Amino acid sequence: MTVKNITELLNAKKYAQIKKELNEMNSVDLAELLEQFPQESMVVLFRLIAKETAAEVFTNMNTEMQQALISTFTEKELKDIFEDMFMDDTVDILEEMPANVVERILDVTDKETRSRINELLQYPQDSAGSLMTTEYVDLKKTMSVREAIAKIKRVGIDQETIYTCYVIENKKLLGIVTAKSLLLNDENALIGDLMETHIISVRTHDDQEEVSKLFQKYRLISIPVVDTENCMVGIVTFDDAMEVYQEEMAEDIALMAAVQPSDDSYFGTSVFNHAKHRILWLLFLMLSATITGTIISRYEETISAIPLLVSFIPMLMDTGGNCGTQSSTLVIRGIATDEIRFSDLFKVAFKESRIALIVGAALAAVNGLRIIVMYQDPRLAILLGISLMCTVFLAELIGCLLPLLAKKVHLDPAIMAAPLITTIVDTCSIIIYFAIATHLFAL
């Protein structure tokens, strides 16, 4: 179904046909489709979606559209939507809503649900506690496989996942057992004999980015969240971990482009906020770049004697900046995937140094040949060759070391990306260039 087709059916008031078409679609696709309609039409279409899928569609919509729908919902519609929603999705939505909307949602929830929501909302933002859901299947070690399967059938419909079940005694997490294990073992076998006791778990206050890395490292579907006394308080599921991973990647991309990260979408952010997120970094980088101009002005006599030197400054600065960016990008990626740690600093520096020598030599050779052909000046070729070698070497080292140092002092390594490294390398390359020129030409 396309927007045009549905619009034609809406105008013709063929609601039964629209309902049939909508309810054959995937909930994610439905959410994307509804977001393309104006609010009035979107509300009509949403009410045509089957009750059992409406909550899932609502969860997949952006915050602006969710808020628009909530403003039109009756108390019963609001209650029905949030009753069918998983707890972690409810908390995620509430965190994005204004206070008056949150109050209205909490008013239609029962006392027990409200208590669980408030508990989850108290965990620090970006922690495992704020990410987890309290909807999981818990079993006792004294249960038989038959009893465990019966319980899963009874309560599983309301749980986020039933593939992994958690064995708990006096609120303590003892082990885990998978649905596969239950199906493949004798129905009289005890859960205590089947459960896996070597458990990968996280604490409620662990950083959510570290939690998402555990999913990638161990290929988990869900991970239990425990408190300081190893009492089970919830689980984090794979889909939530992947959302965190995507958010962190988006944040890193923004930082690498010298843009302040924002949780809002591109079109959902106002022009003023876009400008505000960019201008601070641009001001900092612009003022930092004045250092390069100051350095150049110190070599006015050298430039006056050989004006041609100025024409090579952009090439030298761009090459240094590009080399630094390449190095920093690879190191930042290595840090993000836990391949590179601060303890690898000297190992990384040694590797980048060797790369710099090869790259610098190749660039210097090609550029030196060009200089000789164009200007028939061997000294100028030597000057550019040495300057390129030194600039590339320095840029590669700066590009690999700064992200590691940032990580060490608990800053986001992505801050030390292209714009900042380019500014630093520009300054260093100019100093190297004119220092060598002054001595080589004895000016």
UniProtKB/TrEMBL annotation:
One Gene Ontology MF term: metal ion binding
Chief location bin: membrane
Domain CBS: 195-251
Alphabetical UniProt keywords: CBS domain, Cell membrane, Magnesium, Membrane, Metal-binding, Transmembrane, Transmembrane helix, Transport
Membrane-crossing residue ranges in chain numbering: 279-299, 355-375, 381-405, 417-442
GO CC aspect terms: plasma membrane
Cited Pfam families: CBS (PF00571), MgtE (PF01769), MgtE_N (PF03448)
Keyword flag Cell membrane: yes
Annotated membrane topology: Multi-pass membrane protein
Cell compartment(s), UniProt: Cell membrane; Membrane
Assembly and interaction partners: Homodimer.
Protein family: Belongs to the SLC41A transporter family.
PANTHER family cross-referenced by the UniProt entry: MAGNESIUM TRANSPORTER MGTE
Role according to the record: Acts as a magnesium transporter.
NCBIfam families per the UniProt record, alphabetical: mgtE (TIGR00400)
Designated name of the protein: Magnesium transporter MgtE
Species: Holdemania filiformis
Species lineage: Bacteria, Bacillati, Bacillota, Erysipelotrichia, Erysipelotrichales
